[in-house]
Every structure is written in C-alpha cells, then in structure tokens.
Specification:
The chain has helices at about 15-30, 50-55, 70, 130, 140-155, 160-170, 180-195, 225-235, 330-345, 380-395, 400-415, 425-430, 440-450, and strands at about 5-10, 35-40, 45, 65, 75-85, 90-95, 105, 110, 115-120, 135, 170-175, 205-210, 240, 245-250, 255, 260-265, 265-270, 275, 295, 305-310, 315, 360-365, 370-375, 375-380. With about 450 residues, it is α/β, with parallel strands linked by helices. It folds into two domains: about 5-120 and about 275-345, FAD/NAD(P)-binding domain (3-Layer(bba) Sandwich); about 130-270 and about 430-450, FAD/NAD(P)-binding domain, CATH 3.50.50.100. The chain binds flavin-adenine dinucleotide (FAD).
C-alpha cells in the first residue's frame, strides 16, 4: 500500500484477460482506493475471433482491435515491454515503447496475463518453421498472409510454367483445429474468388491442404460436426491429411512425417500454442512443465503472495481439477472472478475458487457455412455460421466497433473485397527467404528459440 493508502494493482498484459480484469476492478476502484495499471506493448488488444476475417478482408483490420485506454478508462496504461520482475521487492521492470531505458514500478498486487505464442517445436523435430512459415497470432500475421496471397496471385498470373503456377498457389495449413480450419475456410474463398481478376488463372490452379496429426480435424467438436466440416471442406476441393505431421518446412516445399515431399509456397502454422516464453525469464515464478504459471484454484500463483495469473499464460484448475482451456471466452469470465478474489484479499476475506467452463465452440468455415456446439445444441451450415456472426458481433466490445464490423459485413454482401496489399510482407519474405514479420518481439523469438 502506498503512503496515500492507495492499493496499486499492476496487470502485465492488456489482452482479453488483462483488459477485462481492469474493467472488473474499476468497479471497486473508488470504494477500495485502487490504482490499476496495465502494462502492454500495444495500446490495443486484438479481438481474436475476428482476426482471420480481418486478414482476408471481410472486415477492416482496424475494426478487430480494441483500444485499451477506451476499454478500461479508469485504469492507467503503460505502453511498454515487460522486461523483468523482482518478486521480493515487489516491482516490475519495463521499457516504454520508443524509449531505450528500463524503468520500474512497485506493486501491491501483480497479475500476470501475458498470453501465449504459437507453439513451435524444436528444430530437431520440425525444422524451418520459424524461417519459412506464417503464424496466425497477431494482426500483423493476418495481414501478412493476405499480402502474401495477393503477391502469389500476381506471380502465378505472370508464370507460364503450369507446374510452377500450381506450386505458387499451393497453401498448406499445419494444424486442423479451430484456428487452422477457420484460416483454410476463409483463405480458400479469398484466393479462389480473386482468380477472376487474373487472365491466366483459374480457380482450380489454387490448392489448399490441411495437415493434422490427430485422426480428425476439429477434434474439439462432437463427431457429427467434425465429420460434417470435413465433408464440406473436401467438397470445396480442400485436401485434408489426418494422422500425419509436417517435419520440415522449406522455401518451396514441405516434408511430411511419411517422407512425402509436397511442393508449395506458403505454410501457415496453427499447430497449437504455448504460454508466453517470457515467463521463463522471471526468477521465482512457479511454472509447470509447459512453461505456464502454476496457479491455485483461486488464481493465486503457487507459493507467492499477492501474485495472480489469468488467461492463456496461466494454468488455473477448475474445482474438478482440470485446467481451463486457453480461450478468450475463458479469460473474459475469469476476469470478474479474479477481481473479486483480489478485492477479498485486500479486505482480509477468503477468496473463492475459480469456476469457468467452455460455453460453446463455433467455427466459421467460410462461404457462409459453419459448425457450432453450444450449450448442448449442435448446428451446422448457414445457421451455425449466422450464429457465429451474431454472437461475436454482440461480444465485440463497444457499440461503435460493433457498428463498424456490422457495416463491413453488410457492404461485403454487395461489393467484392479489395485485393490490395497493406505492405506487411517484409523484403526477406518477398525473396522467399528468411523470416516474415511475426509481430513478436525479438525477446520472445529469442526465448522460444532458447526453449527449443
Ligand atoms: C486466430 C485466433 C482466433 C481465436 N478465436 C477464438 C474464439 O473464437 N473464441 C475464443 O474463445 N478464443 C479464441 N482465441 C483464443 C483467444 O484469443 C485467447 O485465448 C485470448 O486472447 C487469451 O487472452 P490473454 O489475455 O491470456 O492473452 P492475449 O489476449 O493474447 O493478451 C496478452 C497480452 O500480453 C501482451 N504482451 C505479451 N508479452 C508482453 C511483454 N513482454 N510486454 C508487454 N506486453 C506483452 C500482448 O501484447 C497482449 O496484449 C483465438 C485465438 C487466435 C490466435
């Protein structure tokens, strides 16, 4: 507690978990004299469920971002990179974006909500991912994939060799769960619909392949739904390989676990996520074997006083002992429970156990189709897709943003998408070498490399 009697709560990460937590805590700010400070490298968070649509031009990329200052008005934001923690001194080291000096801030309560990164396996298991594959984790990833697709359409149109044209327009998505399937569904319609503008291209020149190690795609959904999705996608000419993985990613091909060489030019890696590797840099944090913050059932970091975790980077068990899955819908509902527990601790009262469950899974498949499993109801086809749009429109924070997204969708009913690049492919990738822009910090890249 500061000299003025204020309780300072520092939240690391202003994503889904951190921003919703700040909003929940604000309700207690006046009555409990709370000072709430969010530290995030961005001054916005991404509304992830709309990320793929933003990448493929169904909505304006800006419309799937939420400004943190606007969302949590009674909190302070430090737009900074979190650099270190001193758990004994109760302070956080950070560097403001654009500055070159580290600063520190003391806290009474610390919340770690630093999210996750794409899980990339060590080079000896899967090689070339970091150098040659795209991810789908940040706004920059979504826009980079769109820019890349447009560039390849242009190249393929100018290519006279039919084999090379086929390779240029072959997109491989590794990972057939929710994100991978959403990506392939949207990308297929985006790229194939674009061929109409190119004199030398036909829809059949474009190939889309999903490689999924599990025996089925969308294993999170009931059997009837994932089979329906499988049939829908294959009907659209999307190839699905189950039960195999990709072992090597090269500039112009991948090699599968069956030693099969598949020529392609774009690989999108959506095969799982891992807790933010920066947590491994912070001495004294209790981490589980996956690098996630090990928490008690009330969100408290194990063995630490007044340190809490939520969202993708934290492993918080439900009363039945199972960890909660890394989903936005979970982080959003964890936030008010954690706020209640922090306030209870300040008051000297007992905390309550975390209890959040998945309410439903909705997956858009593109071309106005989807699958949904929601509170015992199972739906597929247009109705599931419409429900996906309706639910996420209502969940989009703020009326202004909701209106903008709705207008984008409405306009798209009558106008075709703009096939313009937004300048997200760096020179290195243009030459089909080196890394694309991942949107991740050098530290994160360095850490995951070390982890690997
Ligand atoms: C493409 C895609 C689609 C998805 N669709 C759905 C969906 O439909 N439904 C659903 O429930 N979930 C969905 N998810 C999952 C969901 O987005 C996550 O579970 C959710 O964002 C987790 O919230 P979080 O606060 O833990 O992490 P995040 O929202 O990722 O927030 C973490 C924050 O920490 C910041 N940060 C990280 N490191 C640092 C650092 N060193 N310094 C400063 N700031 C830092 C980041 O900038 C970020 O703002 C999707 C995810 C993706 C990638």
């Amino acid at each position: 507690m500061t000299d003025t009697g204020t309780v300072r709560i520092v939240i690391l990460g202003g994503g889904f978990g951190g921003a919703y937590l700040a909003q929940s805590l604000q309700k207690y700010a006046g009555s409990h004299n709370l000072e709430i400070i969010i530290i995030d490298r961005n001054n916005f968070f991404v509304f992830y469920p709309l990320l793929v649509e933003a990448g493929t031009g169904s909505i304006e990329p800006r419309h799937c971002t939420v400004p943190i200052r606007d969302f949590a008005r009674k909190s302070d934001l430090l737009m900074a990179e979190v650099k270190g923690l001193d758990l004994e001194e109760k302070s956080v080291r950070y560097r403001l974006i654009g500055d070159d000096q580290d600063r520190s801030i003391d806290y009474d309560h610390l919340v770690i909500a630093l999210g996750s990164v794409t899980r990339i396996l060590p080079e000896n298991i899967v090689s070339g991912v970091r150098e040659h594959a795209f991810e789908m984790k940040h706004m920059t990833d979504a826009v980079a994939v769109r820019d890349r697709s447009i560039e390849l359409l242009e190249l393929a149109n100018a290519t006279t060799d039919p084999v090379e044209r086929k390779r240029l327009l072959h997109f491989i998505i590794v990972g057939g769960n929710v994100t991978g399937i959403e990506v392939v569904g949207e990308l297929e319609s985006f790229v194939r619909d674009a061929t109409i503008m190119y004199r030398n291209l036909r829809r059949e020149d474009c190939t889309f392949t999903v490689v999924e190690l599990a025996p089925t795609i969308l294993g999170i959904l009931p059997e009837h739904l994932h089979q329906w999705a499988h049939r829908q996608l294959t009907k659209r000419g999307i190839q699905i390989y189950n039960g195999i993985s990709v072992n090597e990613v090269h500039v112009d091909h991948v090699v599968t676990s069956e030693e099969k060489k598949i020529p392609c030019s774009t690989v999108i890696w959506t095969a799982g996520i891992a807790p933010n590797p920066i947590l491994r840099q912070f001495d004294g944090l209790p981490l589980n074997k996956f690098g996630g913050l090990d928490c008690e059932g009330d969100y408290a970091a194990k063995g630490l006083e007044n340190v809490w975790g939520l969202g993708d980077c934290a492993c918080v068990p439900c009363p039945d002992g199972k960890p909660m899955p890394p989903l936005a819908q979970i982080a959003i509902r964890q936030a008010p429970q954690l706020a209640g527990n922090i306030v209870a601790t300040i008051r000297g009262e007992a905390t309550k156990p975390a209890d959040v469950h998945v309410q439903g899974i909705l997956v858009p498949l593109g071309r106005h189709r989807g699958v949904a499993s929601l509170k015992g109801m199972r739906m597929e086809g247009f109705i599931a897709w419409a429900m996906w749009r309706a639910i996420y429109l209502l969940k989009t924070p703020g009326w202004r943003r909701r209106f903008r997204v709705a207008m984008d969708w409405f306009i798209n009913l009558f106008c075709k998408r703009d096939y313009v690049q937004l300048g997200m492919i760096p020179a290195s990738h243009r030459e089909f070498h080196g890394q694309h822009h991942t949107g991740r910090s050098n530290e994160e890249l360095g850490d995951s490399q070390q982890e690997a």
